[in-house]
C-alpha cells in the first residue's frame, strides 16, 4: 500500500547545530516529531523554515489544496482525518553531539555502497532480493570485511556457490573498497527527492551527479 511505502522513505537527521547525523525512516521521524524532540526543516527557495508537527500539518493542508505535481503523490501519508507530507529533513532539538567518523560495517551500508546492484551481473534489485557474498569464501579463510564482501542477487550467489569468482568463471563489476563517506547518504543523493540534503553535507558527498 502507498502509505506503507511512504513511511519507509528516508529522512535526513540533523543535530541541533544543523550538522547531518544519519538517515532514518519516515516512520521513525514522525515518532520523534510527535514526541516533540525534533522539528522539520524545509528548504524552500534556498531558505530554511522550521515546523513542529502541528504546523507541518497546516503546511501540508495548504500544499494539498494548492495541487501537487504527480511525482510528489508518493511522499504523502493519508490518515482518517488528515493528509501530511513526508518531511525530507528533521532536526533534533536537544542533541548536540557530532556524527561518528567511523562508518559501520553492516548489510545496509554494503547495499548502499554497491547501489543495490549485484556485483556479478550488474543488475539492480530491491534489498530483499539481495544477499551478501564473500568474494574469497570462508572455506578459503576469506574475511568478513569491506574488501571481501559484496552484494549479490540470489541467482548469482547460487551460481557462484562456495567458489572464488575465478573458479566460478565470474567477474566482479568493480573492486570493493571501504567507503570514505556514509554510503547511504551518497546513494540517496543520486535521487532528485533528496536534493535539499546537499545544503547540510560536505561537498564530497554530492560530487557525484544527481539523477
What can be said about this structure in brief?
With 211 residues, this protein is α+β, with helices and mostly antiparallel strands. The chain is built from six helices and nine strands, in the order αββαββαβββαββαα.
Q: Which percent bin holds the helix content?
A: 10-25%
C-alpha end-to-end distance: 26 Å
Number of contiguous helices: 6
Q: Which outline best applies?
A: elongated
Order of helices and strands: HEEHEEHEEEHEEHH
Rg over C-alpha atoms, rounded to the nearest angstrom: 20 Å
Report the structural category.
alpha+beta
For the biggest sheet, the summary is: 5 strands, mixed
Largest sheet, order of strands side by side? 2-1-7-3-4
Description:
By secondary structure, the chain is α+β, with helices and mostly antiparallel strands. It has two domains: 2-99 and 188-206, no CATH class; 107-160, Orthogonal Bundle (DNA Binding (I), subunit A), CATH 1.10.30. It is built from six helices and nine strands, in the order H-E-E-H-E-E-H-E-E-E-H-E-E-H-H. It has helices at residues 2-7, 26-34, 53-66, 107-113, 154-160, 183-188, and strands at residues 10-14, 20-25, 38-44, 47-51, 76-78, 83-85, 89-92, 130-134, 149-153. It has a five-stranded mixed beta sheet. Strands 5-6 form a two-stranded antiparallel sheet. The radius of gyration is 20 Å and the shape is elongated. It starts with a helix and ends in a 23-residue tail after the last helix. Residues 203-211 have low confidence and may be disordered. Pfam families: HNH_5. It comes from Candidatus Brocadia sapporoensis. GO terms for molecular function: endonuclease activity. This is HNH endonuclease. Residues 105-158 form the HNH nuclease domain.
Amino acid at each position: 500500500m502507498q502509505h506503507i511505502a511512504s513511511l519507509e522513505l528516508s529522512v535526513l537527521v540533523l543535530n541541533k547545530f544543523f550538522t547531518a547525523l544519519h538517515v532514518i525512516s519516515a516512520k521513525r521521524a514522525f515518532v520523534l516529531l510527535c514526541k516533540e524532540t525534533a522539528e522539520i526543516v524545509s528548504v524552500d527557495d534556498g531558505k530554511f523554515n522550521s515546523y513542529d508537527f502541528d504546523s507541518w500539518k497546516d503546511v501540508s493542508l495548504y500544499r494539498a489544496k494548492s495541487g501537487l505535481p504527480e511525482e510528489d503523490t508518493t511522499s504523502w501519508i493519508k490518515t482518517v482525518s488528515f493528509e501530511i507530507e513526508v518531511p525530507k529533513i528533521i532536526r533534533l532539538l536537544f542533541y548536540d553531539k557530532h556524527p561518528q567518523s567511523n562508518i559501520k560495517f553492516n548489510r545496509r551500508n554494503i547495499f548502499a555502497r554497491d547501489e543495490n546492484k549485484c556485483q556479478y551481473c550488474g543488475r539492480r534489485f530491491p534489498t530483499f532480493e539481495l544477499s551478501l557474498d564473500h568474494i574469497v569464501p570462508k572455506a578459503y579463510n576469506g574475511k568478513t570485511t569491506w574488501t571481501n564482501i559484496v552484494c549479490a542477487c540470489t541467482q548469482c550467489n547460487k551460481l557462484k556457490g562456495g567458489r572464488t569468482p575465478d573458479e566460478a568463471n565470474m567477474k566482479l563489476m568493480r573492486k570493493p573498497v571501504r567507503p570514505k563517506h556514509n554510503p547511504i547518504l551518497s546513494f540517496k543523493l543520486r535521487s532528485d527527492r533528496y536534493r535539499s540534503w546537499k545544503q547540510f553535507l560536505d561537498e564530497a558527498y554530492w560530487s557525484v551527479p544527481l539523477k
